[in-house]
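Tutorial, part two.
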Amino acid sequence: MTDLSALPIERKPLQAAVKRAADVVLALSALIVLSPVMLIAAAGILICDPGPVFYKARRMGKDMKEVTMYKFRTMRVGSDKHGAITGVNDSRVFSWGEILRKTKIDELPQLVNILKGEMSVVGPRPEDVDIVKEYYTEKEKLTLKVLPGLACPGSIFNYTHGDKYLSGDDAGTAYTDRFLHIKLALDIYYLRHWSLAYDVSIITRTVKAIIDTMKGGEGADYPVEYKKIREMRRWRRKS
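Running the prediction step on this input gives:
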């Protein structure tokens, strides 16, 4: 069994302090600069599908402690009762909500989670509590030893390649059977190789992926973490 305490991330107090300080500065700055965008997002939700502006998601946080993650609501009221995973062309997502998802504007309220100390700018994405309890292996629980994040290798992979895995009538099963464990493997790689410079690269790559998508780019390459994991597995099979 993997030693869950054997994480190179945030073991040095100075690095942890710098990471937290950077989280606060970035989150507060983003909230100020992007406040007009967030106001437009909220107004669009009220116009397109009257109801709550925010969606409060039950997620598993650091050390298996549940947190409430904030998002702009992108699905029709009550849609979450029909499954936590959103599939390709999911009819529950209203038109304005689809734009918010594509641009990742729907995730901006999580800047508040970051200021509260419940999340970090970069870290494994917080997962649905029931999915964690039912599907995570002991090794995959490595991702719960640190604060969940707004961006990570797994979220980049989800953004650029998720549709290839989540097509079909049962997005929930496709997610837990085909996609979840790949995403978590990428995030475990991130944790094992963590550095502040790596965090900066994740932020840069996330922004680039969103911009490329907005420009109509297609056929995004697999994240470097995905390629490295594939290479390591091929090497082990040959050894």
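The beta strands are 54-60, 66-72, 120-122, 127-128, 149-151. In part three we will examine how such features are distributed along the chain.
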